[in-house]
Write a structure and sequence with these properties.
By secondary structure, the chain is α+β, with helices and mostly antiparallel strands. It contains twelve helices and 16 strands. Strand 8 and strand 9 form a beta hairpin.
């Protein structure tokens, strides 16, 4: 157990509020599994996002949760996706038996995938990271995590496969306790970020000279096309047309690459509409846009959490606008504006697009872990582990690179 004096009083007060709420929980949607007594923890599994989960999620905001596991994100996610019979919330709460307080929360969901019953993080491709919500004052020993995961697995509802993907090394600046799990595998995804500790000018001067020169040239090119303005939208009446424009820009770009667009799904679209409408005025949503002659040529939706800002979805006009890179210019102006408003960490989230490396110098890796929960899940479990081993194989990667190079030469010829 490690105590952080800064957060300790905050969590004592918040846990007291959570305890006061317990009598009002819907007991019929909650079942608990008693862990080994030596562990000192009780594993609760709830089938709804209840008051106790809400209270703990609010406690964890700031230090103990990522942008994609905030109370605002999760409550809207479960409201959107667990209203049908095919998807069921599986909220795992870990309670310290000595204090009776929650110390960790796993936001999971049970759903069907390729004929299998899957338990995974509350994600469906919308969250860039998946991590537990934690009490920053509570420290788990590495050997406890595997034993606790065995207890969690026994307490879960009947399913075929446990899939925990896109697990980051850290939850903000705290070590993610799931990193101690045995069998954790490197994901094929990475993420970029940068912490700006000094002034904006000091940060900007550290970037490559050619990149800074190129940005100035593109700003001049954009200004020749009309009056350029930057907006930070805080009005829910104005955000709907901007979100529609963002989705139109994204859809055109992905369809041009013959790729499916996630937000074409009605539920996915409804989720983002709900988030942006509820969160733009005083919530965590930060929606910015770059306008030329009053028309949005680049749009960006992100989320704030304390001094941490994360970019989630963005769009920009293509065609003749590509020469000006309006999306890249909007990224610069958004970062500068938010830095002036107290934000210091800028998270470009998952993806290895080249522009991210111009702005951000810190690269992070993500991890996956799979556990079979029935014999039906074994084939998929083995297949996923084979794919993970292939990603780690230097020989396989070398063959893939040579094959890709041969394909490019054939296409060029």
């Amino acid at each position: 157990m490690r105590t952080n004096q800064v957060n300790h009083q905050h969590f004592l007060q918040a846990n007291a509020q959570a305890k006061a709420m317990r009598p009002y929980e819907n007991v019929s949607t909650s079942r608990a599994h008693q862990s080994e007594q030596s562990q000192g923890y009780t594993v609760h599994v709830w089938s709804s996002w209840n008051r106790r989960a809400t209270a703990f999620a609010k406690q964890a905001e700031g230090n103990g949760s990522t942008l994609f596991q905030s109370e605002f994100w999760l409550s809207n996610w479960y409201q959107t996706f667990t209203s049908n019979t095919h998807t069921r919330a599986v909220i795992v709460g870990i309670e310290d038996q000595r204090s009776g307080d929650l110390v960790l929360l796993l936001p999971l969901v049970k759903h069907q995938q390729r004929g299998l019953s899957i338990i995974s993080f509350a994600d469906f491709g919308l969250a860039d990271y998946n991590a537990p919500l934690i009490n920053p004052d509570h420290l788990f020993e590495p050997q406890q995590i595997d034993r606790l995961m065995r207890d969690i697995t026994r307490a879960l509802p009947k399913a075929d496969l446990l899939m925990l993907e896109k697990i980051p090394d850290h939850i903000n600046k705290l070590k993610n306790p799931l990193r101690a799990l045995k069998g954790l595998q490197k994901s094929n995804l990475c993420h970029y970020g940068i912490e700006i500790t000094g002034s904006w000018d000091e940060y900007w001067s550290t970037l490559k000279r050619n990149f800074r020169k190129d940005q100035r040239r593109r700003w001049r090119g954009l200004e020749k096309k009309g009056e350029v303005s930057f907006i930070w939208c805080r009005d829910e009446n104005d955000i709907k047309p901007l979100l529609d424009r963002l989705m139109h820009q994204q859809r055109n770009r992905l369809h041009g690459l013959t790729l499916p667009y996630l937000l074409d799904d009605p539920a996915m679209k409804r989720f983002y509409e709900r988030l942006t409408t509820k969160g733009c005025a005083s919530g965590p949503v930060i929606f910015t846009a770059l306008l030329v002659a009053g028309q949005p040529v680049a749009t960006l939706c992100g989320f704030g959490n304390g001094s941490h800002y994360g970019m989630t979805i963005s769009g920009y006009e293509s065609g003749e606008w590509s020469k000006c890179s309006p999306g890249r210019l909007l990224t610069e102006r958004t970062m500068q504006t938010l830095h002036e408003n107290g934000y210091s960490y800028f998270d470009f989230t998952i993806g290895d697009e080249p522009y991210k490396q111009y702005f951000a110098t810190e690269q992070g890796i993500l991890h996956d872990i799979y556990r079979p929960l029935s014999w039906r899940g074994l084939p998929q479990y083995f297949w996923m582990n084979i794919k993970a081993a292939q990603r780690r194989s230097v020989l396989v990667q070398s063959i893939k690179q040579k094959f890709s190079a041969k394909q490019r030469l054939t296409a060029a010829g």
